[in-house]
């Protein structure tokens, strides 16, 4: 049992003089912890990783996770899974009863998606891809693709932006986590 903050070595010697050492450092127990978000929304079937933060000189290797309503969302090792539409609170608790909470809202996944982008663009410009999924839904993961990378390229640092690299027409397709898609044709010229 640890009795104070500090470093120590525990040694064990067997009857045949074989010795083993274990180096150990005892740090302060957490006085407070917090999730990296105070609230979050996700869709049914979505996963969201929540991380727990400690004060710099404190630590706990035992964190217990619970949900106020596992029919809405479950949490295991900080990973929240959306189960059904509703709201709940997920908790992280250390062995010394210090805890954190995050409000979770699980929404239904969209049945449709509509791309909102102008049909004409100029070579050398970059534009943001916007989309509509309706009310009271959450998209989950979103993936964009283009039919011709000689005309349009997805910006790697921000895959919701597209750069117009050459003249021509190309399709932009958006695919949501649940497989719902929409496609729009964009024309790029140097006008």
Write a concise keyword list for the protein shown above:
191 residues, mainly beta, four-stranded mixed sheet
Mean pLDDT over all positions: 91
Structural category is: mainly beta
Q: Name the overall outline.
A: elongated
Across the major sheet, the strand order is 4-11-10-7
Query: What share of the residues lie within helices?
Result: under 10%
Structure notes:
- There is one protein chain.
- Helices cover about 0% and strands about 55% of the residues.
- The chain has about 190 residues and is mainly β.
- Strands 4-11-10-7 form a four-stranded mixed beta sheet, with no helix packed on it. Strands 13-20-19-16 form a four-stranded mixed beta sheet, with no helix packed on it. Strands 5-9-8 form a three-stranded antiparallel beta sheet, with no helix packed on it.
- About 20% of the residues are buried.
- The model has no long low-confidence stretch (mean pLDDT about 90).
Kindly summarize this structure in a few lines.
It is built from no helices and 20 strands.
